[in-house]
Amino acid sequence: MSLQALFFDAAGTLIRPAQPVGLTYSQFAARLGVQTEPEALMTAFREVWTMTPPPFHPVERPPEDDDRGWWRGLVGDVFARVLGGSLPENTLENLFGDLYCHYARPQAWTVFNDVLPALSELVRDHRLFVLSNFDRRLRNILAGHDLMRFFVHVIISSEVGAAKPHARMFQAALEDADCPPGFCLHVGDDMICDVEGAQSSGIQAFHVDRPENGLAALVQKVRSGAYSGLRSALL
After folding, report:
1. Are the CB atoms for 145 and 124 separated by under 8 Å?
2. Strand locations in the chain (E)
3. What is the pTM of this model?
4. DSSP string covering 18-87, please?
5. CB-based contact 218:194 (threshold 8 Å)
6. What are 54-79's pLDDT values in tens digits?
7. Which of 31, 89, 156, 217 is paired with 114 by a 20 to 30 Å CA distance?
8. Considering only the top CATH level, what class is 5-16+109-234?
């Protein structure tokens, strides 16, 4: 039996922000009279992202706010790090609301050039899924770029209640695919969340590391039988 289902990470694998996050944050802040440097915001975003634990909720009790509160906390921490203190509550609320709505728009994101050719090829004989640390905004983003047609289902962390690399995410994907882990492949750009997380759940993984290892290389490996479920089961 050969590879049956492929799970794709979204941000960093299929899509990316249309412009640097620091620049977007700075532009939206300036509209409210808050002056910041895009480079400083970008650095702070990376630092806060690395330090902030991902959302986690009890089993079968996903967040009612679709993890909106988690994102609000992250944005507040980013600006506090750059400004040396917290934004006024009303300013933060308005700024975060603007940013949250902005990143719900398909136009705020761009699709990597290798995505459409790869998905068009792989969907011919595999079932494709999205498995992403994102919230319900992702479906509108993917639909706006005409990507939803490739996927059987979009599995998001805000509905599972846990984020990759937590095993609950990968278990949700396996249940959706109704497929043993040895016959699935997870594709993503993050070594910990995507590669190590998938492998810990018995799922093979492809590390997206453009330009050296993009989705064109994925198609070549799939077509060559590099991810054989039968081979995996025998090892």
Report:
1. no
2. 5-8, 15-17, 109-111, 127-132, 153-156, 184-188, 204-207
3. 0.94
4. SS-HHHHHHHHHHHTT----HHHHHHHHHHHHHHSPPP---TT---TTTTHHHHHHHHHHHHHHHHTSPP
5. no
6. 999 999 899 999 999 999 999 999 99
7. 156
8. alpha beta
Q: Is the peptide bond before 88 cis (omega within 30 degrees of 0)?
A: no
pLDDT in tens, the chain (235 residues): 589 999 999 999 999 999 999 999 999 999 999 999 999 999 999 999 999 999 999 998 999 999 999 999 999 999 999 999 999 999 999 999 999 999 999 999 999 999 999 999 999 999 999 999 999 999 999 999 999 999 999 999 999 999 999 999 999 999 999 999 999 999 999 999 999 999 999 999 999 999 999 999 999 999 998 887 544 433 3
Whole-number Cα distances in Å, 164 to 4, 89, 134, 189: 21, 31, 10, 12
* Class of domain 18-107 (CATH, top level): mainly alpha
Residues of the chain with CATH 1.10.150.720: 18-107
Residue type, 55: P
Give the sign of the dihedral formed by CA 206, CA 190, CA 164, CA 148: negative
Q: Which amino acid, one-letter code, is at 102?
A: H
What backbone phi and psi angles, to 5 degrees, belong to 208?
-80, 120
